[in-house]
């Protein structure tokens, strides 16, 4: 939180910084004087959402990683199968040529 008067950064629980407090003690305000507070930012309601997201995030990330790993393994298997198929076809073609060419 920042000082409500000068805007300096303060520790939690404080509203005015020591300098402003000294000035206020030196020049006290009459009771009943209207004070306009700066508009508060809606930060507190946003904090619980972040906590919930933090709690949910690891499980969701693990699920995503697992599904991506499965996909990668599937792609790897398919590509290996395709590669071995091409190798078999090439070997068959080479054997046919060797058979057709008389030595
Ligand atoms: Zn201040």
Polypeptide structure, described:
- The structure is a single chain.
- With 103 residues, this protein is mostly helical.
- Helices cover 62% and strands 0% of the residues.
- The protein contains two helices and no strands.
- It has helices at residues 18-26, 46-100.
- The longest helix has 55 residues, at 46-100.
- The termini are far apart.
- The mean pLDDT is 83.
- Bound molecules: zinc ion.
- Zinc ion binds at residues 3, 5-6, 8, 16-17, 19-20.
Q: Helix and strand layout, with pairings?
A:
Layout: H1 18-26, H2 46-100
This protein binds zinc ion.
The site of zinc ion has 8 residues, from α1.
Bin the helical content.
55-70%
Give the percentage of residues in beta strands: under 5%
**What is the strand tally?**
0
Biggest β-sheet description = none
Low-confidence stretches: none
Summed up, the helix count is 2
The radius of gyration is 37 Å
- The whole-number mean of residue pLDDT values reads 83
Morphology: rod-shaped
Structural class: mainly alpha
SSE succession: HH
Termini Cα gap: 93 Å
What ligands can be seen in this structure? zinc ion
Question: What's the gist of this structure?
Answer:
The chain has 103 residues and is an all-alpha fold. It has two helices and no strands. The mean pLDDT is 83.
Key features?
103 residues, mainly alpha, 2 helices, 62% helix, 0% strand
């Amino acid at each position: 939180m920042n000082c409500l008067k000068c805007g300096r950064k303060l520790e939690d629980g404080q509203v005015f910084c020591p300098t402003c407090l000294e000035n206020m003690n030196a020049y006290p305000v009459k009771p009943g004087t209207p004070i306009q507070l700066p508009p508060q930012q809606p930060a507190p309601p946003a904090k619980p959402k972040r906590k919930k997201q933090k709690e949910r995030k690891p499980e969701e990330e693990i699920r995503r990683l697992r599904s991506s790993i499965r996909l990668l393994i599937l792609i790897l298997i398919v590509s290996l199968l395709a590669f071995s198929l091409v190798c078999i076809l090439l070997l068959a073609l080479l054997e046919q040529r060797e058979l057709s060419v008389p030595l």
